Amino acid sequence: MFAGSANGNAVSVRTIEGQATLQARTNHQIGIDSVHDEIVAPNPFAQALLFFRGGANGEEAPIRVIQGPKTKLVYVDNVAVDPVHGEVVAAQTLTDSVLIFSREPGGDVAPIRILHGPKTKLDHPWKASVDPVNNLIAVTNKNRILVFNRTDDGDVAPKWDIEGPTLRAMTPRVLTPVLYPEARKIFVSMRVKQPNNVAIAVWNYGDQGDVAPWAVIKSSPTTRLTTLTNGGMAINPEAKEFMALAGEVYGSERILIFYAPELFR
Amino acid sequence: MNKQLRKIQILFLAPCISLAALLWVAKSNWISIAAAQVSRNAAVPRTPLVFDKAPVRVVEDANPSFNAIAMDSDDSEVLISNNNKASTPSILVYPTEFKTTDRVMEPKRRIGGPTARLGDICGIAVSPQNKEIYTVQGEEPEMKVFPLDGNGDMDAARSLKVAHGSADVYLDSKNDELFITTEHINKITVYKRSARGSDKPVRFIQGPHTQIADPHGLYVDSDSNELFVTNYGSWRETASDEDVESRASDREEAALPLAASTGKFVPPSIGVYSRTAQGDAAPLRVIQGAHTQLNLPLGVARDPVTGQIVVANSGGDSVLFFDAKASGDVAPVRVLKGAATNLKSPTGVLVDTKRNELWVTSWENHTTNVFPRTAQGNMAPVRYIRSAPKDAPPATFGTPGAVAWDPQRKEILVPN
Fold first, then answer.
1. Residue B15 maps to a domain
2. Quick check: B60 contacting A, CB < 8 Å?
3. Residue A81: which domain range?
4. How close does chain B come to A21, measured CA to CA in Å?
5. Do A77 and B63 touch (CB under 8 A)?
6. Domain-embedded: residue B291
7. How many structural domains does chain A have?
8. Which of A243, B2, B55, B73 yields a CA-CA distance of 20 to 30 A from B324?
9. Distance CA B415, CA A255 (A)
10. Are strands A215-218 and B49-51 parallel, antiparallel or unpaired?
């Protein structure tokens, strides 16, 4: 973990590491639960969701683990948190489903809701994001962004479905969604594709179909968002900043933090 | 009469005018609605706001981080992988003998750059006889072979398509075979050393009875015909010859059905197999349990003199030595650990019998440390290589996978 003001070769303020933490070397999205002060991390190789104390440090074991036959978790490398309703959401690319769990009690528990089936249009779902204020779940797929009602369950059609030639022209693959409830915006990182060179795009709530984004963040020598491999991205609306994991070749060389008040209105 | 007619005309006209107005408004709305309907099936015109500004802060560690290690004893060179993406992942070649200095030591040669396109180099092996270097990377489904005297930003001499998630590679020179561990699918795959392109493996070990659980380091003893594999302990049932997770996000096959999970955590371990084991083969023995002190075990080797199994115990900041025939929940016969050792997250080990020395890469503090082969306890290295200044912060970035913001603590979280 780094201080929010970190810059350069910063010293990590704390690190959760070691055998007892049960982490794997592969992890493409973690969740922060500010209400219950917890960090949630996936372990794809043990098919588990790990819940840590928000202030955990060192070789500290998770306080709770969701794992077991009832969970239906398969290669879970991502997790999104709804701290208001006490739920966690995991996109399952191998089963074309989205699993929603109650954060407690943990253990071998079944999902409380499952989005799955042809009406959902889920196709290689990659990651999810939850807006507990407007009650929405956004899910990035191979080449579409699906937004569901937060409490949707089963084989249901998405509330909004952003897809079409405009999106395909921008990227071969959308990566990480981040919902911004206050301004009702959807930030989405993506694999960069020339000549459009869009690294992150922002849509409005309610956008549907083949619709151009409200804003685009360019991949350029100026932004240095040259390549985003896993699309790691987060927003800090209070400071009007967004941050992304990017690099010139591998897409994960560094964290870039941007000040962008124009995107947080 | 005319007045009345006018009144009638006005009265009549008023409704007509109103009706016309209504019709006009309705038509306009229909046009809008129709346009909107059309636009649902065509791109909604919108001129996006374009953001193209420089970042205000950049968090990165540009110091190389030592990871895997191999030695060319013939030419007295040691080859160490640097897997830090911000410092251009590379193969760094150093002399085996040098004067220790606290300054950063420049390698004799360096293979790396956009053409070489080396990433998270998890494993490295060399063949002095064939003058080759073999590398595997965690994120690329490809083993790359470079010339042993390679230097600079060069393309691989050849490559071999392998499963995604490689964790280590070992060359069994006696039998001319390459062994590769694959984390994501709990598999050990064996190829002919000369394999290239889409050549098939000669055999593999994979399946529920193998007890392979998130495998990492491996070592082959071609004299005793044993294969040693370190496991982190994240286990799920893996069918023999399964590869559904190898490229999860880019799979081309149909989706799997929703079914019961099989994942569980088992203690970290060292699995010992017959060198020629194949399929769903059970291990000959397993070193596992609380007494072993295993904590995220990575690189593994064998001391040819004593037969002891040597493990880079990355989570314990130590090197563990087990009896040649160790099995079950047994304590190591020797432990190298302590502040004086300079070990922080050790990742790779090798035993140099020519100089009677033990080499250990220490990822977190940017050092590679050399000890006497029989070192133990809190013993300082006899010499070491630095890839960063002595006061550099600990390494944090290898292959970060995501970024998150904690609004309460005002912290940036990066799983790595």
1. no
2. yes
3. 1-116
4. 10
5. no
6. yes
7. 1
8. B73
9. 12
10. parallel
CA–CA gap between residue A153 and residue A100 (Å, rounded): 9
Q: Do B184 and A45 touch (CB under 8 A)?
A: yes
Write the pLDDT tens digit of every residue in A7-36.
888 888 899 999 999 999 889 999 999 999
Residues recorded for chain B: 416
Instruction: Give the CATH number for residue A15.
Output: 2.120.10.30
Q: Hey, are the CB atoms on B258 and A11 less than 8 Å from each other?
A: no
Domain that holds residue B206: 66-241+263-386
Kindly provide the ipTM of the predicted complex, given to two decimals: 0.96
B147 within some domain: yes
What one-character DSSP code corresponds to residue B67? E
pLDDT in tens, B144-197: 999 999 999 999 999 999 998 999 999 999 999 999 999 989 999 999 999 999
d(CA B372, CA A28): 40
- pTM for the model: 0.91
A46 contacts in B (CB within 8 Å)? 214, 233-236, 263-265
Number of domains in chain B: 1
CATH number at residue B178: 2.130.10.10
Residue from A5, A25, A190, A229 whose CB has the most chain B CBs within 10 Å, to mutate: A25
**Phi, psi angle pair for B221, to nearest 5°:** -100, 105
Residue A147 belongs to a domain? no
Q: Is residue A231 part of a domain?
A: no
